[in-house]
Amino acid sequence: MLPANNPVPAPVVSLTSTARSLWIIFFIFFSLQQTVAQDTANVNNGNPAIPVLSTSFPEYPYNKKRVKWVAGANIAGYGAVMAGLYAAWYSNYPQGKFHFTNDLKQWKQIDKVGHVFSAYAGGKASMEMWRWTGIDRKKRIWIGGLSGAAYLTCIETLDGFSSQWGWSWGDFGANMLGSGMLIAQELAWDEQRIQLKFSAHVKSYKDPVLAARTRELFGSGAAERILKGYKGETEWV
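RE: above sequence
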């Protein structure tokens, strides 16, 4: 909870925690989209082969150097993100003993859906990185699939030591659900038949009072407002 002399509603603080998680996962996920493989398909009417986007990734032979690169990139990249996040965010707030918070009744569970999506998307991106190394299929699925939940759990742990927030079992459960959804499908079908997608609508207000209140709650930048504006978010299955 916020101090008594702070006029900002408490749910906004919970909202920013999810936004930070989404920012990290979106960066990892979309920066890896260039690794999507292209395949070729022969058209039966006699036209030459036309490149099309494949619905699945190719399998690669085992490559020890790639394993080292991917492992190093994950450790160094996420370590740098966590250090920067702590310096830029958590260090500005009082730290205390590890504690818990119950935010299950806030934001009509939209933040929890965001955690599910973040863990799913981050795990999928990591899993495809490990596919590139050529490691065993099950190892790739488990290591990559759990990465999303693992990354978010580290952030949740930092929340637990911050007096402004706290460890949320609801957030942790949502993280595990997102990773579990990814892993289960990959083990059962070797593909994602049920996928999660995200869309958002940013609304502008002509009324200066409403516009000012919107900036106070959700920020002024488009990206920040998309992440914080739960009312305009839609999670698709």
